[in-house]
Amino acid sequence: AAKRAGGGCYALFEPHMGSDASEQLELQNDLRQAIDRGELALHYQPKIDGTRGQISGVEALLRWNHPKHGMVSPMVFIALAERFGLINKLGNWVIDEACRQTAEWARNGMRMRVAINLSVHQLRESGLADRIGHALQFHGLDASQLLCEITESVAMEDIKATQRTFDGLARIGVFLSIDDFGTGYSSLNYLRQLPAQQLKIDRSFVNDLESSEDARAVVSAVVSLAHALGLRVVAEGVETEGQRDILLAMECDELQGFYFARPMPADSLFAWSQGEKPEGAVDFTPSVIGS
Ligand code: C2E
Ligand code: MG
Ligand code: MG
Ligand code: MG
Asked: Residues in domain EAL (predicted)?
């Protein structure tokens, strides 16, 4: 199986897999055991600060190294985990592992804000803020070192749960981000009330920046809207220098995408902070990594 350190390359395992019943049952069992067998890992993709050109934080992205199928995309197994009722187990593992890694980096001199992605099920879990609070405490972290990303469509799907969870997380000092913005249907009045600090523009808009005037108009408007609401804007899925230049001209605060770096194992990110550039990363020196 073709395995690369980063995202985008999941050989042998396509989204249609797991569609027939016996395959599903097998996968369900595999997934149940994946945590205990140590097959799960977090890879980390940097967010680059637009004005300072430094790494401002990283996003933790879940990977499953299946013994038979190789790297399985989270697009596949997150959906399976949700269907099988395993998403909380998976989500809890992510919370703990991200905190553990953040603390380890900090001990080694790399202070970094780490973002994790939350699913709709976690959002509905009433004890989520407590659980995250305990993980932070256990690993000796400051709450501001953790950021939670919630997809816009998920946030709007269950407005009550979102509000409650966001309030709970904000109360303990965790940073919050609205992910994949532009693909859901946000009530702006509602968006205004969420205690978030960050908004991430969906990669579909970023992808069209160079070819579509409409995409440029939308992104520019979203940047203005976010700034008016006091949110920092991250553009996800930046793949070209041209996209980067347009986004910087629009005063987008942070950029993330394959152009800068693919998601990578924790060790590679740390090595980068020591001057060892990961394969496929853009040629820049993250002089002060994290802040
Ligand atoms: P997301 O949170 O929007 O994460 C961004 C996705 O875009 C990642 O895919 C990343 O590898 C990919 N990406 C980053 N830069 C580029 C680029 O320049 N071009 C392209 N084409 N893609 C880029 P990935 O890792 O496959 O994750 C997919 C989705 O799975 C994530 O979307 C997120 O919604 C979900 N996910 C990942 N990890 C977790 C997790 O721990 N928990 C939950 N609940 N969901 C997760
Ligand atoms: Mg995300
Ligand atoms: Mg996203
Ligand atoms: Mg996305």
From this structure: 24-277
